[in-house]
Amino acid sequence: MKAIVIDGQGGGMGRMIVEALKKELPHLEIVALGTNALATANMLKGGADQGATGENPIVYNCPQADVIIGPLAIVVANSLLGEITPAMAKAVGESRATRILLPVDRCQNVVVGVVPRSFSEYIQMAVDEVKRIVEASEA
User: Fold this and answer.
1) CB environment 97-122: b (16+ within 10 A), e (fewer)
2) How far apart (Å, rounded) are the C-alpha atoms in residues 98 and 5?
3) What are residue 6's phi and psi, to 5 degrees?
4) What is the DSSP letter of 98?
């Protein structure tokens, strides 16, 4: 099973996701895709197996993923202060992968009806969902 973690800006959220996934699912293949080199480097420091930076790696890898994890912004063109290109958002949206999107309310993306939680709670919820998907695929 192949999981992709996409993040931008400083990559802090992506790194936290990678670390939590590696802690609970150490054999899960994790590919870190950053919108910039700093984000990719941070996710690699968090334990991602591979990493790449920019639009083309995101467009190329999304169709091959089983799970894509990242902030809600990865499906919104021009979000993250313009770091998510329309092609990136399209690749994530058209992927056959299960998308696990964290409802971070930045960049004018607000999900109504979502209970405000701490960032670490959202990450744990994402990890729990990936674990459920992995376990179901192994059954």
Assistant:
1) bebbbbbbeebebeeeeeeeeeeeeb
2) 12
3) -115, 130
4) E
Confidence of residue 107 (pLDDT cuts 50, 70, 90): low
CATH of the domain spanning 2-138, picked from 3.40.50.300, 3.90.180.10, 2.60.40.10, 3.40.50.720: 3.40.50.720
Please classify residue 126 by burial: count the beta carbons closer than 10 Å to its beta carbon, then call 0-12 exposed, 13-18 middle and 19+ buried: buried
pLDDT in tens, 21-32: 999 999 999 999
**Which strands form 29-34's sheet, in the order they lie side by side?**
50-53, 29-34, 2-7, 67-71, 98-102
Weakest-pLDDT range from 3-7, 42-46, 76-80: 76-80
Determine the residue type at 103.
Answer: P
Contact in structure between 68 and 99 (CB atoms under 8 Å) = yes
pLDDT band for position 42 (50/70/90)? very high
Token pair 């894509």 is found at: 68
